[in-house]
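Hi all, posting the design record for the shared folder.

TITLE: backbone redesign
STEP: 1 of 1
STRUCTURE INPUT:
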């Protein structure tokens, strides 16, 4: 247990930041899940709409310290490749 006020404040801040980061990551994961669900059902319009949402979420989260910008770029690249493959197959 911390004794100094600054250490107590640091713990309070860490709890808030952890909750915020978990929420951000959760929203991104939910968006990716809906995109992959549309891909699995071979629904091109729904996949395109979901991809736009996920792309926006990844861009927003990558500007914070929650996610590195290269990880967000890598994720967007992989998702766009799956969308492109779906369009080519259909």
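Okay, here is what came back for every position:
SEQUENCE:
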């Amino acid at each position: 247990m911390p004794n100094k006020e600054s250490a107590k404040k640091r713990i309070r801040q860490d709890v808030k930041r952890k909750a915020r980061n978990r929420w951000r990551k959760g929203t991104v994961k939910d968006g990716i899940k809906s995109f992959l669900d549309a891909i699995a059902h071979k629904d091109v319009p729904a996949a395109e709409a979901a991809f736009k949402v996920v792309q926006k979420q990844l861009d927003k989260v990558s500007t914070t310290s929650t996610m590195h910008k290269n990880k967000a770029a890598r994720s967007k690249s992989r998702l766009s490749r799956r969308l492109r493959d779906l369009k080519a197959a259909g």
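COMMENT: The chain is about 85% helix and 0% strand.
Let me know if anyone wants the other runs.
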